[in-house]
Amino acid sequence: MVKEGDFLWEGSDAFKEATGVAAFIRWLRDERGLDFADYRELQIWSAKEIEAFWAAIYDYFEVISDTPYESVLVKREMPGAQWFVGARVNYAEHILRHEGDDPEKVVVHHLSETRELAGMKWRELGDMTRKIATRLRAMGVVPGDRVVSYMPNIPETMAAMLAVTAVGAIWSSAAPEFGVGTVADRFSQIAPKVLFAADGYRFAGKDFSRRKEVADIVDGLSSLEQVIWLDYLSDEGAPSFDGKSVTLFSDVLNDAVVAREDFRYERVAHDHPLWILFSSGTTGLPKAIVQSHIGIILEHYKSAVFHLNLNADSRMFFYSTTGWVMWNSLMWGPLVGGSVVLYDGSPTYPGPDLLWKLAADTKTTSFGASPTFVENMRKHGIVPKERFDLDAIESIMLAGSPATPESFKWLYDAVKEDLWVTSQSGGTEFCCGLVGATPTQPVYAGEIQAPCLGIDVRVFDDAGNSMVDEVGELVVASPMPSMPLFFWGDSEFKKYKEAYFDTYPGIWRHGDFMKINSRGGCFVYGRSDSTLNRFGVRIGSAEIYRTLEGMEEIEDSLIVCIEEPNGGFYMPLFVQLKEGVVFDEALDKAIRKRLREERSPRHVPDEVHAVPLTPYTLTGKKMEVPVRKMLMGWPVAKAYSADAMRDPKAMEWFVDFAAKRLAEKGESMYGSLANETK
């Protein structure tokens, strides 16, 4: 029986010497006169001397800029830090710089439920990107314009993103399974000029037309001028949209080829937005997170080479939709000259081992999925190595939620013995991990190997004191280049500060419970705030509340989500009904249907319960965090204070509910976190 902290694997000396981390340590010694014995020494220096570290990253990866930067970091404070002022760069150019290395090399391996496995060469990706970019310019798209996507995880979407960023416009994406309300909450904030849209998608063998949804989205975006339409499910062609110009994606691809030497990338300033990612909104609309070209270039190089050990021979796969930050992180492979594997569809259709077959067919070297996916494999007794040749796999990255010791051990038993299993935890806010993997360190069951390079990550108690070997709040104490420039529409940082800096002034509070042990190993225990982590994707409780507010039967509601120790998730919804309304099966189904259609399948709760009263604090905030803590096994006295409640009786039902559920599940399941908080 594997236990948390059990030793599982360590790379050979030859493996360690060939890693990107080891090469960087040698470069620092030769070029900077800095000598580090191991990763831990390097990490401590990089988190303290952030200017020197990030300047080294800029030079090591030979960042392309029109002009030299004037300063590495202006204002070492959060928010408001400015990185590499004076540099003028372009993210897409750094990916497509590798097209000239070997134009006929496959850079994108892609499979979907509507398409057979195929490969796209560097030349083909470059041609497609330049055609789209040139057409966007002809449409009047200029630097700073927002261009959005409602497309599946296919090469066309990747090329569209590269094209948009190549011309200095700002990219943002929503997955096609998102409902109209979820998309509108995002795109309405940023006033896009152009929309890339597909007619639908296929999942688990079932077609989902999105023609009506696209029409509703377009109708709600008054800023929109152009729609670029992709026939993905059928050949019906684009519908007409009142007052909007419509261009077929196929027509764009029929444009004349634009030679590499004839194309101009728009190199932009240090603070020019690259893309807008949306994180959960626990109050109000989802946060529109703006990140810079220079910040993401530097962070993605660092993450790809030092924390995933990617190189020009690597093939990177991570199961993701276009609405999750991990889709953006798939660019790590091409950024270093390697390739990426894209898949659009159900991870378990037509069989539960589909992704392992894809890995074998593409000779994937870095395989990524959520711990929930791995746990399902383990529970169903699937042993991939018995069915497929997985010798090419060198590493497996687990991300999206805490990974259990059992998941780690299963990968070594069922996939490969000589395997670097990595678990990483970070956020949409940075488009990277805060704590993650290093190939030169041992792997211990259930343990994230170390804090990532260049990141001053710590664990704080309530008073803001750093702790070791104790559970507390995950914080970042110094600026990072990939931190948000701002939230769109929040140039004064009001919402930004409220979201991350209201607990510890000047210190980023991330909203996760974490422990760092004496050797630097990290354990993330899930959310410490009211954000919902649903199968690795964070969604906001406010999205669910807005939908339920439209149901006349419901007076109020409260929703939480917990990551369970077995790698699963539990998301119950509690509804306070209007007087005279009876909770029955029909209402339960109506709630689920409304959430699925207006939001997405991930917004549908595991259970719906009618409650007599919704608990609030004296200041009018729903008490999601206390309810969540009790469901995780916290002592009631530690979970909330009755003195801080508007009506203490409102919590009595939840106390009983949590106690019954813990008794059914077994208190030992939650002992690790609950005991450490007593």
UniProtKB/TrEMBL annotation:
Belongs to the ATP-dependent AMP-binding enzyme family. It comes from Aquamicrobium zhengzhouense. PROSITE patterns: AMP_BINDING. This is Acetoacetate--CoA ligase. Keywords: ATP-binding, Ligase, Nucleotide-binding. It comes from the Bacteria. InterPro entries: Acac_CoA_synth, ACAS_N, AMP-bd_C_sf, AMP-binding_CS, AMP-dep_synth/lig_dom, ANL_N_sf. The lineage of its organism: Bacteria, Pseudomonadati, Pseudomonadota, Alphaproteobacteria, Hyphomicrobiales. Its EC number is 6.2.1.16. GO terms for molecular function: acetoacetate-CoA ligase activity. Residues 104-480 form the AMP-dependent synthetase/ligase domain.
